Amino acid sequence: MTTRQTFKRWNIGIFALLLAGFVCLGVVEGVALPRQDKQGALYNEAQNNPLTHDITRTASFATPYMGNASKVSGLFLSLPLGPIRSFALDPDVFTVQVNLDSSVPMADVDRDRAYLYSATAAFAYIDNLEAVIFNEGSAAYRVTREELLDWYGVDQFSSLTTDHVAWQAAVQNKLTDRDYAWRAFQELFHETETLSV
């Protein structure tokens, strides 16, 4: 075999590898990454709905003390509540107030589901939290740990958060029933004054 033939084979081999690389790059850039981006966007959109929210992403904000402002704000921001303006914490009465953006009103059924879901998650992941106030601007609603424990018929919220299947069965799946969410809102969420802290 001559040197010229060897170079020709090497050139053909290098060209074939380059062509294969460009085809692979095209598949990754043109198919795989857009598909992954679309799935990511769908997942993120699902996090705005209590019926499809992934509670496991919220577990990282668990804290024994409601005074840990970064964990508390991170927890509520990861929940399907809609736009949040600010927070108020009153460690003397172990209460968190979530000030919602009232310029983006929620439908009543969405509000009922979001408040029940988010309050349950807050009590499950903030050990010493005793009350949550959802401040809509024109009205504020308060719910307590004790009332929610009675609602679910459990002694502590840790039984609801042992895994995502337990959470779905005890909390999430029940929210598909609009009457259930409405009843919970009517019985558990009481109009209240906002915190003065």
Question: What this model shows, in words?
Answer:
The chain is an alpha+beta fold and 197 residues long. It is built from six helices and five strands. The protein has helices at 3-46, 69-77, 108-125, 145-152, 164-172, 178-188; strands spanning 84-90, 95-100, 131-135, 140-144, 190-191. A five-stranded mixed beta sheet has the order 1-2-3-4-5. A hairpin with a 4-residue loop joins strand 3 (131-135) and strand 4 (140-144). The N and C termini lie far apart (89 Å).
Keyword list:
five-stranded mixed beta sheet; single chain; 50% helix; 5 strands; 197 residues
Write the layout of secondary structure elements.
Elements: H1 3-46, H2 69-77, E1 84-90, E2 95-100, H3 108-125, E3 131-135, E4 140-144, H4 145-152, H5 164-172, H6 178-188, E5 190-191
Parallel strand pairs: 2-3
Antiparallel strand pairs: 1-2, 3-4, 4-5
